[in-house]
Structure formats: structure tokens, C-alpha cells
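Annotators were shown the component list below and the corresponding predicted structure, then asked to write short factual statements about the assembly.
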Amino acid sequence: MQEVQVKTLQELLNSFANKDVYIHLETTNGSYAAHYDEKFFNAGAFIRNAKINYELAKVVDDSPHRVGLKMAHGWVYAQGITHFELDDLGRLLMAGLDYSGKLAIALEISETPFTY
Amino acid sequence: MNLQPQRHILIVYPHPDDEAFSVAGTIAYYTKKMNTPVTYACLTLGEMGRNLGNPPFATRESLPEIRRKELVAAADAMGIQDLRMLGFRDKTIEFEDDEKMVKLVEGLIEELMPSLIFTFLPGFAVHPDHEATARAVVEAVRRMPKAARPQVLGCAFANDTIEKNGEPHVIVDIREMKADKVNALKAHASQTAWMMQETEKRVDNGEPMSESWLNIEKFYIINPDQYVN
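Structure shown to annotators:
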């Protein structure tokens, strides 16, 4: 993955528009957050291989970036995206890596299902 | 070291590296000094590991294969001959069908007839996958006739572990096997590189290797009858 270049990422997001695609969306503080800080309220969300079709996608030029996907009947968005790559299977992988290199959010788009 | 001989040891943990932190020294002693057969059933490949680095060395999708290779290398460092990767997904164990998980452990016990099982101490294992794994192991053993049960030793590291359970029942001095434990931890580089670097730096600076986790491993003897589902 490389740091987000808005123009390149926008073009990649556009290339998946109006197609049935599988998404992986994840936010996490890690399972140990409340172990290290008992006052920490640990919350996160995970969805993998949900099939969607979006008509409009936008990456906002404000780092860390926000990425929004507009669907016929709703939205998907992710906040805190720092890195991206188009992997060797043609999947668009985006991630938000915090200052210590830990993943805080991931948004991935693929025309074929992700593994289990 | 003064470890009881064992017919066969079964380790059941959900993540590659759980075993390195919890039992690597003890297991290396059993495999290398006592020729004990050991099976490690590792439920996931730690697919949800958060440490990808910045700049990143992996993606969410490439991490599992990296961790699979690390797990194989760690098992080798500990002298584990029978490594089983069970194909579950990280952070989902507690959402699986509980009975299916119990049956899975029952199947392993039936096949291997271990005299000793290592897992986590239910209620004091912090990570939901640890807890779900330990519950399945303890329930599988609880259903066995008492005379046939293997001993179950559990690792615990919740902040209130000692307050609620007292001191661990079994304390294994692993200094003799420290190199094996360090090698097992180093094998899980995607998870431990930063920590190992810090430790080596402190040692290079003349500070004592005071990290107790490199010197001793601590376990609670689990009485399955205390845990009725």
C-alpha cells in the first residue's frame, strides 16, 4: 500500500462504480484497548463480502481522507483512510493506519468475493 | 526443570503468537528435553491483526499468509511436530455455534488422547477469541469421565487475574529454554518485531533481562466442574 494520492484513488473508485462489488469495511480499536485502559469504551464494526452497487464515489482531499460511496438506497463511508493499493487480484484495498502503524479502518472493494 | 512426563500435549489457542507468549518455553522443554509429542491446534491465522506498519509491510488481505508462515516457523522453533491450522476467522470464534466448537475439541481429544491441554483460563483471558476457545476446551473436558480427563492448564492475563484467582498454581522456570522462547516470539515478527527490538536494546544497554515472561511461564490448573454451561 502507498499513501493516498487523491487523483489516482478517485480514478480507481470510479472504475468500480455501477458494478456489483463485494466490500470489506472494518473499524477497530483492537481487542485489547479496554485491557490497557479500563476507561476506554471499545467499539468497532466489521462487514465482509457484502455485495453492493454504488453510483458515485468520492475521496475527499483532506488527510487522513474520507471515502464515500453513494448507492441507490443508501451510503457507505469510511473516515481515516491513509493508504491504498490495487492488489494483484484487481481489488482496491484502502486502509487507515495510525501513527504507530496499526490499522484503524479498512475499506476494500472487489468484483470477486474476498476470502472467508 | 521439574515437569511431569506427559503422554501427549495438546495446545488450543486462537491466534498465531498466543502460544509463543504463553507456553513456548514449557513446550520447547517438553519437545526437546523430554521427547513429548505435542499438537498445536491454532484456530485462526490472526487475520485481523492490526499491526501493518507505517509505511505498511502488509495489507488486510496479505496478512494471513504472512502469519501462516510465521506460525509454521514458530512451531518449528518450539519443536512442535503436529501443527494444525483450523481455518476459523480471527475475532469470530465467540460467534460460532458453541456446540460445534466443543465438538471440535472433543474430536481432537478423542484422536490424540492428550494427558495435558494448554489453553486460557476462562474469564481472565481478555480477548473474546481467547475466552471462546477456553470455554470450548473446558466444556469438552468437563463432559469426560473424571478418570479419563487430561489436566487442563490455563494462561490468564486479565488485570484482575491475581485478585480473583490468587497466584498461578504452576510456575515453570523456563530460563533454560529462553532462546527457544525468544526464537518463537521472533518468528511472529509481524506481531513482535517492535517489542523484541526494544527488549534487545535494553539488554544491549546493560539493563537486566528482567522481563519475567522470558524467565517463567505461569498457569492455573482448571477444574472443569467449576464451569457448567
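Statements collected:
1. Chain A has a mean pLDDT of 96.
2. Chain A has one domain: 2-110.
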